[in-house]
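Students often ask why inverse folding is considered easier than folding. One informal answer: many sequences map to the same fold, so there is more than one right answer. In these notes we will look at a single instance of the problem. The structure comes first.
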């Protein structure tokens, strides 16, 4: 969760040359954003563990993630773009994680447009 919260936090200074690298970034200290991102990551993990490959439904977006959906979107995109292969996991596992994060983000957008 702390790594994801860097998406809603402040960028590091001085910046480094690699566009996705931000080793000095600080995570958001907002407890509501932390709870929302935690809920979203648990939803992604749950869907990964259930398998099946179906898209995450908008109903699966929890109340905390829904309330802070803009922050959740920024944080999940930050995480999705920075999952490292082979540092963090194998290539197939990283593809699945990125795909499930994308599915959760699409569900969040669907909830937003239907609300």
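Output (designed amino acids):
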């Amino acid at each position: 969760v702390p790594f994801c919260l860097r998406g809603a936090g402040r960028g590091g200074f001085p910046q480094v040359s690699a566009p996705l690298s931000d080793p000095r970034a600080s995570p958001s200290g907002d407890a509501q954003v932390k709870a929302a991102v935690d809920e979203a990551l648990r939803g992604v993990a749950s869907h990964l563990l259930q398998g099946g490959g179906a898209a995450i439904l908008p109903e699966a977006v929890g109340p905390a993630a829904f309330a802070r959906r803009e922050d959740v979107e920024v944080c999940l995109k930050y995480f999705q773009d920075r999952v490292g292969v082979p540092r963090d996991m194998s290539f197939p596992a990283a593809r699945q994680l990125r795909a499930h994060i994308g599915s959760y983000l699409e569900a969040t957008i669907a909830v937003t447009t239907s609300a």
